[in-house]
Specification:
Strand content: under 5%
Helix content: 55-70%
Shape: globular
Order of helices and strands: HHHHHHHHHHH
Radius of gyration: 17 Å
Structural class: mainly alpha
């Protein structure tokens, strides 16, 4: 989880990719259970189990790495195809990752938002436990225009910064209500 390294998280151990995937899957199950949504939850869980496959080859590219979304998508597609190349069900798995990446279906969007929400929750947890703050973040984070804008607004709560970065994605979905609840909740 490269982003946590840029933020200089001081926890004894940083969340692994496997823990991130598991957390996103658990969120998917919980939200699906309680929000009465019409979607194929098994497809969502499958997408979430595969969506980080590209990182095996290209690593964890974050917004701080100054790679355009188009370039990241292109690199990711090539990495996923290479990883699944010899599998008999490779096309199905590649299609699931693409659906997650493009998130233009209800399942793809739901899985994508579960992934975002898991990260936002982790940021809130690290902040509330005192493991991360803007003052100790790397220069890559501090020199970022969005980070500077939040600081100018007096926003230093890292969990809030993560939620604000994603709030446009959450707008008009059940995730908007959940994000607002998270703002008030203390871990």
């Amino acid at each position: 989880r490269q982003g946590w390294l840029y933020w200089n998280v001081s926890a004894d151990r940083i969340e692994s990719i496997a823990e991130h995937i598991f957390g996103a899957q658990q969120l998917a199950w919980l939200i699906y259970s309680e929000a009465n949504l019409d979607l194929d939850i098994y497809k969502v869980i499958s997408m979430l189990s595969l969506h980080e496959t590209e990182e095996i080859t290209i690593g964890d590219i974050t917004p701080f790495d100054k790679v355009t979304p188009e370039e990241k998508l292109s690199r990711g597609e090539k990495a996923v195809e290479k990883t699944f190349d010899r599998l008999s069900k490779k096309n199905m798995m590649i299609d699931l990752v693409k659906e997650f990446d493009i998130h233009d279906t209800k399942e793809g969007k739901f899985a994508f938002l579960c992934d975002k929400l898991e990260c936002d929750l982790q940021a809130k947890k690290y902040y509330e436990k005192g493991y991360v703050n803007i003052d100790n973040a790397s220069s890559i984070v501090k020199d970022n225009e969005k980070t500077k804008a939040y600081e100018e607004q007096g926003i230093t709560d890292v969990g809030e910064i993560f939620l604000r970065n994603d709030e446009g994605k959450y707008a008009g979905t059940v995730f908007e209500e959940i994000a607002n609840f998270i703002r008030e909740y203390r871990v």
